[in-house]
Amino acid sequence: xxxxxxxxxxxxxxxxxxxxxxxxxxxxxxxxxxxxxxxxxxxxxxxxxxxxxxxxxxxxxxxxxxxxxxxxxxxxxxxxxxxxxxxxxxxxxxxxxxxxxxxxxxxxxxxxxxxxxxxxxxxxxxxxxxxxxxxxxxxxxxxxxxxxxxxxxxxxxxxxxxxxxxxxxxxxxxxxxxxxxxxxxxxxxxxxxxxxxxxxxxxxxxxxxxxxxxxxxxxxxxxxxxxxxxxxxxxxxxxxxxxxxxxxxxxxxxxxxxxxxxxxxxxxxxxxxxxxxxxxxxxxxxxxxxxxxxxxxxxxxxxxxxxxxxxxxxxxxxxxxxxxxxxxxxxxxxxxxxxxxxxxxxxxxxxxxxxxxxxxxxxxxxxxxxxxxxxxxxxxxxxxxxxxxxxxxxxxxxxxxxxxxxxxxxxxxxxxxxxxxxxxxxxxxxxxxxxxxxxxxxxxxxxxxxxxxxxxxxxxxxxxxxxxxxxxxxxxxxxxxx
Length: 482
Fold this sequence. Notes:
Layout: E1 5-9, E2 12-16, H1 25-31, E3 51-57, E4 63-69, E5 82-84, H2 98-105, H3 115-128, H4 134-140, H5 152-160, H6 169-182, E6 190-194, E7 197-201, H7 205-214, E8 219-221, H8 228-232, E9 240-243, E10 253-255, E11 259-263, H9 268-278, H10 280-289, H11 292-295, H12 300-305, H13 314-319, E12 323-328, E13 331-336, E14 341-343, E15 346-347, E16 354-361, E17 367-374, E18 385-394, E19 397-406, E20 413-414, H14 416-422, H15 429-439, H16 453-471, H17 474-481
Parallel strand pairs: 1-5, 7-9, 8-9
Antiparallel strand pairs: 1-2, 3-4, 3-5, 6-7, 10-11, 11-16, 12-13, 12-16, 14-15, 17-18, 18-19, 19-20
Helix pairs in contact: 2-3, 2-5, 9-10, 14-15, 15-16
């Protein structure tokens, strides 16, 4: 028998059956529920008009609130959670939520199409940050686009909504909501079927391993921020999806004396604080390539297994010497991340196998690291070139060099000839120039809509030069470049 999907919608229980597993949350709201405040602008998670908030128990009697894009999120992923829409924010007597009232007071809406998405991002900000800086506000709204207001009054509203105090009616209702969601708990994972399509969400690795062995050709769904476009843009149907988002063992983020270990199901939001602490430029890259609604659900393992040549996660991970633990019917195996990518969208993953863990060595004395992203737009844009550089210096010489690029080849790739030109030499301008010259033989980039081959080649060299300027010292830089 098929399970039903059970969740809270604005505090009211819902039991859903009969809808395709790849029905998006946006389609469900506007169609089945006739809640049309949530809008479709792009159907790919870029514009933020469809932003909603998903709440889950935090294990301590409270709830966590995360902004998400409903246009690329599949309905079964809501099982056991609470969905909050713009219609559910006002109180029973019609009093607007502080985020809504602030938007009114600050005249922060014109055509109004994007406004519900902004309100939901502000709602999430209010519940996650009691005293945000202006930069925090900008970051919280980075996934929402507006073509009318120029954002100033929206930022004014972000400040104004805190005038009513730190709490709202949702704080008072959180315990009851968490208790109701507890009634949705399952002993085994969700198995939902409709119209000949199946969605399986194992609760742990034992269940997951058994399902992968039974269905080795099934499609794997992690965060779905890229996979969702196969449905919304290409209108593909999938007979069977195995969802990794409920397996707790895959969501771990831990640090040992020597390594950071990230479960492949850990989101970029979950990993960001630790990665930012050890490698600030990596943290900045994450904030640029993924808005909060994206990084709240996009997983590190999904970004890797997707094997996009312009994915921004693999280049810095490769430069840092990360390795992958893969899990499948035949057990576990580990390999260096750079060996995982074979060709365009082709990887070392075997049938029935998943990326389970990413292991990153911690920095050692004498190490330098930076990652840079070049794109047409600052935030949430696809890279023309992403370059990541890691050096280990010993006794004034380069003992180890790892230079990794995205956007320069069919896969994320190390610049091996450039690395060879660095190792054993002093980290000075002559060495940097020798490596830049060698790099011309490492890549034959394509011309496409994002950049020409010549631009990519020049940019790849210049990013290495920038790394040298930033790490070799100001005096060295003045001598080298005037």
